[in-house]
Amino acid sequence: MGMHPIQVLAVTGGKGGVGKTSISVNLSLAMAQAGKRVVLMDADLGLANVDILMGVKADKTIAEVMAGVCDLRDVMIETQGIKIIPASSGVQTLVNMGANQHAGIIHAFSDLSDELDVLVIDTAAGISDSVVSFVRAAQEVLVVVCDEPSSMTDAYALVKLLNRDCQLRDFRILANMTRSPQEGRNLFNRFAAVTSKFLDVNLRYAGDIPFDETVRKAVQRQKPVLLSYPGGRAADGYRRLASEVLGWPVRTEATGQLEFFVERLVQGMA
Questions:
Q1: Contact call for residues 244 and 209 (beta carbons, < 8 A)
Q2: Above 60 in pLDDT, residue 93?
Q3: Do 14 and 116 contact (CB within 8 A), yes or no?
Q4: Which residues touch 234 (CB under 8 Å, ≥6 apart)?
Q5: Could you give all domains of the chain from N- to C-terminal order, each with its CATH number?
């Protein structure tokens, strides 16, 4: 078995409407275009929308995996060079899953470890147990913020919770829907100033995705902006972000917490 490192990235933000799913989808596509084998997991277990944004129909979802009807490979949809693991919409049992069930999903990914280079997790909005479970099991946490007060306060609440309850210290911050690169940098500086005053965390700026009308048009067409408007400002931003993410060092040691592909990390230490 090859022991190539797998990058695991959770895209989160606390607040809904900041563009998390668009970022997860287009970043996944951009990394696939750069030659990586990418799996995108829709971890919004109650209100799935990755499949909608990609314009594909999910016959089976993670609900069937949890019910023991099939395994993860059976639900994966291969499209546009990436593999999607779709979630369900309106399935209350998934929304109310406990820690053991979240752990079961995380462990199930071990069977896929030789089939991918990057796992992107599109989390739900808010700070539910499922968001916390999947974020703490990732190697990198990408927190999406935009220039509105509720986005900043919700992102701060999320970072505070993950720091206090899960001892997470490292966060990457992405500014979305910016009018200029400087606006993105200013947004990060404001967020970092407040956060460093009250929390002992390490924030790093991951860049920005510019505001672009083509994003809304792409959503209406159910086709990612990277594919439908590849020459647009947003598409350029996603390619820059993919290049940035692929340059991050991939952790190869276990932390002692529940993690995706932890068996490989433990074997790597042996």
A1: no
A2: no
A3: no
A4: 26, 209, 210, 211, 212, 214, 215, 225
A5: 7-269 (3.40.50.300)
253 closest CA partner among 242, 267, 243: 267
Helix (H, G, I), strand (E, B) or coil at 269: helix
In terms of Cα–Cα distance, which of 138, 209, 207 is closest to 172?
207
pLDDT given at position 98: 73
Amino acid symbol at 135: V
Please choose, from the candidates 8, 2, 3, 4, the residue with its C-alpha nearest in 3D space to the C-alpha of residue 255: 8
CA distance linking residue 259 with residue 241, whole number of Å: 24
Report, as an integer, the average pLDDT of 193-213.
96
Q: Would you state the pLDDT for residue 94?
A: 58
Provide the Cα torsion 13, 18, 24, 25; round to 10°: 160
Residue-by-residue DSSP string for 207-235 = EEEE--HHHHHHHHHTS-HHHHSTTSHHH
Tokens of 50: 């990755």
Q: What angle do CA 31, 130, 256 make, to 5 degrees?
A: 80
